[in-house]
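This part of the workshop introduces the protein records we will be handling. The question running through the whole workshop is how a given chain folds. To make this concrete, we reproduce a full record directly below:
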Amino acid sequence: MTRRGVTAPIASASRPEQMDTLLRAPDIELSQEALQRLQEAGE
C-alpha cells in the first residue's frame, strides 16, 4: 500500500485454513527492489 491512491488490498479466503496466511500478510516487508518491480509491473 505504498502507491498513492491504493487504500486497501484485495484478499479473500475460501477455506478457514487460509485465514492464517491472510492475517499475516500485513507483516510482510518487501525490499525496495521488490517494491520497484511491482510498481513497474503495475504501470
